[in-house]
Automatic annotation (TrEMBL):
InterPro entries: 6-hairpin_glycosidase_sf, 6hp_glycosidase-like_sf, Glyco_hydro_37, Glyco_hydro_37_CS. Residues 1-21 are annotated as: Disordered. It comes from Homarus americanus. It catalyses: alpha,alpha-trehalose + H2O = alpha-D-glucose + beta-D-glucose. This is Trehalase. It comes from the Eukaryota.
């Protein structure tokens, strides 16, 4: 058992945190181009938060692993914050992006080494840094993380050391999480899904899962546990995206059926991973392996067009295996391919972007004050309306930004969404917690600055990926962004303090802001 003393020892702050001079005392170079002094200072405080979110796992965990639930890794880690006292897999992509902006290359290298060690041990990157997470993963962002690092450092020696493990993680998804589907012409495509074939409640949410399962006949309970764990592997825990109820997305958590769904974003991400691996092998001079992964990327790109793309609606959709058809519901994950650049091979890319923008407008999701909603379903789940999540805002904003050279409206829409997201983070600080300057883990798209809600847990402080997205947007658009409406540059304020990301407000507090 972990007593309070050992827990405190494991969770101690990082005295020797890599890059400390850059993030504790100095202003990162990219903040110098932020024109609004208040946003510049705010960004500096955000940057300084990394030290508070940093942890070094005690060597006691390595020496006596049976006494601890933590997974030992040799290098410092960044935890999300709040109730989350261990590191998580896909969260780290947005954290690493911001750490690199702050020239904290060695910190990032250490984090990547940690993930590689986990691939060596488990054959994949687990959901998070606890032993009970080792039977499931999360969206596979390790290869894109390494690309971020390589873009900043071109560390070919490090790449050569880890390339085999990057391939091993890719093959985990190809071999252990794949199924085959046929397109209309009868051609077979290999696609991936989230699928954790292990019964029993989630250890971290044992009571919630057990109580939920009691509503089902005994013979159906184990499958529910599989579905709940598969939903956790997706990172979207939970959403109507995973509900199947008489061929609809209505229902409750009893209707979660993740293993019957083939997700757009997972397959888009794996297409991107294959392309990056091809590029990595070119850097290392291994042209045969580069060609192998280019061919795989091309096949997956074709799959995005043949299996997921809906030309009538102008978007990609998840697939319901059992219904043998597309799930035609709005989820922000539908447009993940504009970020991964895996559009498919049918028609010019400008035509695709044009259709995607029309799809967004048709679904009326660009009208909200605080970002684009995760879905249009009012289910009470975290990954549904009215919540907006930082990583999804990043994907749509940066996807449109990268398409700016091929479509005239993409960049202006990207900036508009970035402006909304930065301002809602700013307003959250101004309106509610000026002394601690919070951002939200998630936000209510209908009310400027109001954190979102729903799901299994309450207000959280921290959140690393929200910090990371805010800093990236200040880097991309800081020369134009302002903290307030009307284009006026907000004055500097002495009341800016350490940024703490606040996510879920109790309903009583939310009602003060007129939340529906």
């Amino acid at each position: 058992m972990e007593d309070s003393q050992t827990r405190r020892r494991q969770l101690r702050g990082l005295d020797g945190f890599h890059g400390r001079p850059q993030h504790s005392d100095c202003s990162p170079e990219f903040l110098k181009k932020v024109v609004d002094p208040a946003l510049e200072e705010w960004g500096l405080k955000l940057n300084g938060l990394w030290k508070q979110l940093g942890r070094k796992i005690s060597e006691d965990v390595q020496l006596e692993p049976d006494r601890y639930s933590q997974i030992y890794v040799p290098n410092p880690v960044i935890v999300p914050g709040g109730r989350f006292r261990e590191f998580y897999y896909w969260d780290s992509y947005w954290t690493i992006d911001a750490l690199l902006l702050s020239q904290m290359n060695e910190t990032v290298k250490g984090m990547l080494e940690n993930f590689v060690e986990m691939v060596k041990e488990y054959g994949m990157v687990p959901n998070g840094g606890r032993i009970y997470y080792t039977r499931r993963s999360q969206p596979p962002y390790l290869i894109p993380m390494v690309k971020l690092y390589m873009d900043h450092t071109n560390d070919l020696e490090f790449l050569a050391q880890i390339i085999d493990k990057l391939e091993e993680e890719f093959l985990f998804w190809e071999n252990d999480r794949s199924v085959e589907l046929q397109d209309r012409s009868g051609k077979t495509h290999t696609v991936a899904q989230y699928r954790v074939n292990i019964g029993g409640p989630r250890p971290e949410s044992y009571r919630e899962d057990y109580n939920l399962a009691q509503q089902l006949p005994t013979e159906e309970q184990e499958d529910l546990y599989v579905q709940m764990k598969s939903g956790a592997e997706s990172g979207w825990d939970y959403s109507t995206r995973w509900f199947i109820n008489n061929n609809t997305n209505k229902g409750t958590l009893l209707n979660v059926n993740v293993t019957s769904i083939v997700p757009v974003d997972l397959n888009s991400l794996l297409c991107m991973n294959a392309r990056i691996l091809s590029q990595f092998y070119i850097k290392l001079g291994n042209y045969s392996m580069s060609k192998l992964y280019k061919d795989i990327a091309d096949q997956k790109n074709e799959t995005m067009a043949k299996i997921f793309w809906d030309d009538t609606d102008g978007t990609w959709y998840d697939i319901d295996i059992n219904a043998d058809g597309k799930r035609r519901h709005f989820y922000l994950s539908n447009i993940h391919p504009i970020w991964s650049d895996c559009y498919g091979q049918e028609g010019p890319r400008a035509h695709t972007i044009e259709k995607v923008i029309k799809y967004l407008k048709k679904n009326d999701v660009l009208k909200y004050k605080s970002g684009v909603p995760t879905s249009l379903e009012k289910s009470g789940q975290q990954w549904d309306f009215p919540n907006a999540w930082a990583p999804l805002q990043h994907l749509i904003i940066m996807g449109l930004y990268e398409a700016r050279s091929i479509h005239h409206e993409a960049e202006s829409l990207s900036f508009s969404l970035a402006e909304k997201w930065i301002r809602t983070n700013w307003q959250s600080y101004q309106q509610m917690y000026a002394t601690v300057a919070p951002l939200g883990l998630i936000y209510n798209v209908s009310v400027m600055g109001l954190p979102g809600g729903g799901g299994e847990y309450d207000v959280q402080v921290g959140f690393g990926w929200s910090n990371g997205v805010a800093l990236r947007l200040l880097d991309v658009y800081g020369d134009r962004l302002t903290a307030t409406t009307g284009g006026a540059v907000a004055p500097r304020t002495a009341s800016l303090w350490i940024i703490l990301l606040i996510s879920f407000l109790p309903l009583g507090i939310r009602s003060l802001f007129g939340t529906p």
